[in-house]
Amino acid sequence: MVWQLDEELWFPNPRWGEDDGLVAIGGDLSTERLVLAYSNGFFPWYAYQMEAEPHWYCPLNRYVIFPAEIHVSHSMKQLLKQHKYEVTVNEDFEGVINGCSVAQGRNEESGAWLGPAIIEAFTRLHRLGYAASVEVWQPANTPEGRRLVGGLYGVTLKKAFFGESMFSLVPNASKLALIHLAKAMEQIGGHFIDCQFETPLFASMGGRFISYEEYMKSLHQQ
Description:
The protein is an alpha+beta fold. The protein is 31% helix and 26% strand. The protein has a seven-stranded mixed β-sheet with strand order 6-7-8-9-10-5-11, with helices on both faces. A four-stranded mixed β-sheet has the order 1-2-4-3, with helices on one face.
């Protein structure tokens, strides 16, 4: 069953949703609704060029990376030792979210979801302290000068990070960002990185499924 949301701030029980995790349609992308959504495991995902209203997903099998379980391959360890790129946090959130939107021509695809409304909503979340970015930079001492070559962004609530998107303009930039995020979260006792869906990249870096019940318990533990 898929529920129609209205102006009130609420979400239905995700156990009533579709097998693919779709639970509700409608509502808005206000900060209050987004904070409520992520606090309960929901996230918006819809093809903005074809669908007028947000679609809200909450899969009951959650794909996450626990910071202490991040897998760093031998090749990535070698890249880290080279200090070839500079990695920062929250230096250029707008650069990252816009980079995620257009990298590899994503915004030209019919199913593109990272459109103007999502960009505006999550940039607002960032300004209020509910979203963060990790940037990967080509250093200033290169012929092209310092430039953003990859990164990721997501929502930060409690001690969890809800990954939204990542991009790379050079090989392995998004992996560098993810490793940096996991190591930083491990240092502060972060609980998990929500990957939303399984991908080969996330699987190779230590991702695994947990139940919605375990997910919510981990999210709300102190």
